Amino acid sequence: SRRIVSGIQPTGNLHLGNYLGAIRNWVRMQDEMAEANRIEAVEGGSAAQNQCLFFLADLHALSLPHDPAELRRGTLEMAAALVACGIDPARSILFNQAQVPAHAELQWLLSGTARMGWLNRMTQFKDKAGKHREGASIALFTYPVLQAADVLLYQATHVPVGEDQKQHLELARDIAQKFNNDFGGASDDDGKGGTIFTFPEPIIPPQAARIMSLRDGTAKMSKSDPSEMSRINLNDDADMIMKKVKKAKTDAEPLPSELDGLDGRAEALNLVTIYAAMTNTMPADVLAEFAGRGFGQFKPALGEVLVETLAPITGRFAALLKDREELDAILARGAAHARELARPTLSSAYEALGLVRVV
Ligand code: ATP
Ligand code: MG
């Protein structure tokens, strides 16, 4: 059975790009697991164990300069957004790292195994530290070890990783292998030592839509864009969504019947992409339906689709943001479950290292 572990930065001011580019992938993974469990239960008769653990990477946020109030707000907002978008705390384990101390504990236990040379090769540190490497935090340098702990702690079998994270997952596997080798005790036939940690396999997330600004089809839709009209926020109401779509930048041409007719028309392509993503179709299907029609007709149709599909999300999102007790309860339940899953692995790591604990 599969156990997928995935983390997300707890940022606030969420928008349509975050939903289509990141959050919806999680909802899909969760649904795939539920389906796999259903099929396996029918075939095997016993309850299947496929499971998703989704966490808010609040500890990782400490690796870059941050504002504590923003981190707190972003964490709660991201938790609310995830649940509003369909992450079901009853089916997936949803929590924030800070409430599961085993992440930080295991990071330290793994820090004796991870080599300076390995971390020195991480390109993301070089990118993020830039020219001022001496001024970078220790956390920025060692956070790939925390990432290794994040997944090894739960014996993750699969970890979704984008291009930029592949190297970190390799590192997690190297750490697992060396730890198993050095401290795994009785060696198996393969000479790899005992297996305290499972080697996590990468899964490449499905190609997510890249959503562009409503004001400029060549710029990514982003929370940092100063123009509110450039993005659809997850807390926009129906009127606001309609208004933003109607004011979106376009050109004067009608929609073409073929995709290559959108070459050089970045804004038109973006609106078609959004329509396709929201209706779970392909851009070519959208063109087949709207070929020859102008934006006077396409925009209201797009606005309606957005309002209809986002309404349940924005409604639940707003309600959850106002219900701190419910949010706290969701995160507390998820964390309790995560702590329970982490306990045996954490204990065997302590034990293997010769650390005396009377628990
Ligand atoms: P910033 O402007 O500060 O970078 P952002 O709006 O780009 O913020 P992030 O917090 O960087 O948002 O991204 C959170 C997640 O949402 C990431 O997985 C990122 O790939 C995804 N994402 C962000 N913007 C888009 C977009 N326009 N289209 C698709 N995915 C996006
Ligand atoms: Mg970004």
UniProtKB/TrEMBL annotation:
Keywords: Aminoacyl-tRNA synthetase, ATP-binding, Cytoplasm, Ligase, Nucleotide-binding, Protein biosynthesis
One of the Pfam families matching this protein, by short name: tRNA-synt_1b
Catalytic activity: tRNA(Trp) + L-tryptophan + ATP = L-tryptophyl-tRNA(Trp) + AMP + diphosphate + H(+)
Motif ('KMSKS' region): 220-224
Annotated TM spans: none
Annotated InterPro entries: aa-tRNA-synth_I_CS, aa-tRNA-synth_Ic, Rossmann-like_a/b/a_fold, Trp-tRNA-ligase, Trp-tRNA-ligase_bac-type, Trp-tRNA_synthetase
Alphabetized PROSITE patterns for the sequence: AA_TRNA_LIGASE_I
Family: Belongs to the class-I aminoacyl-tRNA synthetase family.
Purpose of the protein: Catalyzes the attachment of tryptophan to tRNA(Trp).
Protein name stated in the entry: Tryptophan--tRNA ligase
